[in-house]
Amino acid sequence: MHMPRPTIISVNNVSFHFENSNLDIMENVSFEVKKGEFVSIIGPSGCGKSTLLRIIAGLIKPSSGEVTFMNKRTEGPNSKISFVFQDFALLPWLTNMDNVKIGLSLTGLEDSEKTKKAAELLDRFGLSGFGSHYPNVLSGGMKQRVGIARAIASDPQVLLMDEPFSSLDELTANTLRSDIVYMLENKNISVNSVVMVTHNVEEAVELSDKIIVLSNKPSRVKKIMKMSGARPRDKRSKQFTDIMDSIYALLAK
Predict the structure, then answer these.
(1) Whole-number Å distance between alpha carbons of 59 and 250
(2) pLDDT tens column, 169-226
(3) Rounded average pLDDT over 228-246
(4) Closest by alpha carbon to 101, among 84, 83, 118, 121?
């Protein structure tokens, strides 16, 4: 008998509106992220998906409701929750090594230990020869690998990703998706849950254990879809295309 997975993140009746504005961005959004889960958030463009991810990260306070991490209310950024940005967010005046070391800035490690760990992470993501180079010499996929290496440097438990593959060509995106799944299943890497915002329905169905489908503004949870079957999933199967069709139908309503 399988033991139930513990809840890592709980989003409880979260609503958000900008101060001095009557514009409601989201209303009473609730869902849970379990240990070991890959959760995708999908919804119409401009519905507040990225805002919701930033609320989960503790970067934005909700107008009402709360987010908890390991049963404790989130009051601000947490070193156990890391963020991967769509536009890589690398600092161009720092080497790739130093960009990764930013992820170690709050760990209390000596600089030599930070350098050693950053080098190990760059090596793990196939960038061992690029530590002393600057981001401008890297391809988009390589930049995102540096971004992921930086995000997991502090040994977080949760990785939040805001459309991390949308600016990459499909071949590079596929490789990075495989890297993320490997990371989630690798017991030597601390990350044990992933929450990803995406507009790519196929990507969500391919990667997720659970898909949160949001409505247009003000965003509400239209449906929580639980996926079955191990990854990698067969994109040509009838089950895969049926799930995609049902999500497109939900988004069109």
Answers:
(1) 29
(2) 888 888 888 888 888 888 788 888 999 999 999 999 999 999 999 999 889 999 999 9
(3) 87
(4) 118
pLDDT tens-digit map of 156-171: 999 999 998 888 888 8
Question: HEC profile for the chain?
Answer: CCCCCCEEEEEEEEEEECCCCCCEEEEEEEEEEECCCEEEEECCCCCCHHHHHHHHHCCCCCCEEEEEECCEECCCCCCCEEEECCCCCCCCCCCHHHHHHHCCCCCCCCHHHHHHHHHHHHHHCCCCCCCCCCHHHCCHHHHHHHHHHHHHCCCCCEEEEECCCCCCCHHHHHHHHHHHHHHHHCCCCCCCEEEEECCCHHHHHHHCCEEEEECCCCECEEEEEECCCCCCCCCCCHHHHHHHHHHHHHHHC
Q: Confidence class of residue 18 from pLDDT cuts 50, 70 and 90?
A: confident
pLDDT tens across 119-154, in order?
998 998 889 889 999 999 998 889 988 998 999 888
Q: Fill in the amino acid letter for 204.
A: A
Structure tokens at 202: 């196929």
Residue 128 to residue 131: CA distance in whole angstroms: 6
